[in-house]
Structures are given as structure tokens and as C-alpha cells.
Specification:
Layout: H1 2-33, H2 36-45, E1 47-49, E2 54-56, H3 64-76, H4 82-94
Antiparallel strand pairs: 1-2
Helix pairs in contact: 3-4
Length: 104
């Protein structure tokens, strides 16, 4: 029984060490690649989904990457469908005050 308890405890300790390494890696990435003011914006907007226990970011479909992709399509002369156009317009209106992007 003691041996089983010891093995189980070691497995749990290994898992804790693994999770600690993963958290440190994520913090390292955040600290080095995301500006603090942008990180704070994301953190303020995040909401906890109590069903899954995970944080979600509302309106994630309106992120800058999607907007830039649509801008590039528009410049190339490609048509943007109605939903994409609405997302493009909605994002420009929502972030006009917060954005430091000169494209607006």
C-alpha cells in the first residue's frame, strides 16, 4: 500500500512539474511577444465560461488578422462576401478609438 501511495504521489509531482514548465513557457511567450497594453486589453475582455471552465474572448472573429486579410483581398480586387464585409465594417467601427493603426 505504501509503495502504491508513493508511486501515485510521484506521478502527481511529475504532473505538477510538467504543468509548471508549461505555465513558465506561456508566460515567457506572453512577456516577450505581446505588448503589456495589448495583454491588458485581452485580459479585460476575457470572460470565464463556467460550463467549460475556460476563458473566452468575445467577438474573436473580428480580430485584426481577419480584418487585414479582408483589406488585402479588397486591395487585390477580390470580392468580399456579405458576412465578411459586415465583420470588416463592424471591426473598424468598434476599434476606431482604441486602435493605433494608421489604416483607419
Amino acid at each position: 500500500m505504501k509503495e502504491l501511495f508513493h508511486r501515485e504521489r510521484e506521478d502527481l509531482m511529475d504532473r505538477i512539474r510538467e504543468l509548471t514548465r508549461e505555465i513558465r513557457k506561456q508566460h515567457l511567450l506572453i512577456d516577450n511577444f505581446i505588448p503589456p497594453y495589448e495583454y491588458m486589453k485581452i485580459e479585460r475582455r476575457a470572460e470565464l465560461d463556467e460550463m467549460t471552465g475556460e476563458f473566452i474572448i468575445p467577438n474573436n472573429e473580428f480580430t485584426g488578422n481577419n480584418i487585414k486579410r479582408n483589406k488585402a483581398k479588397k486591395k487585390e480586387g477580390h470580392a468580399i462576401d456579405g458576412d465578411q464585409r459586415n465583420q470588416f465594417l463592424y471591426e473598424n467601427i468598434l476599434n476606431m478609438e482604441e486602435s493605433e493603426d494608421e489604416d483607419f
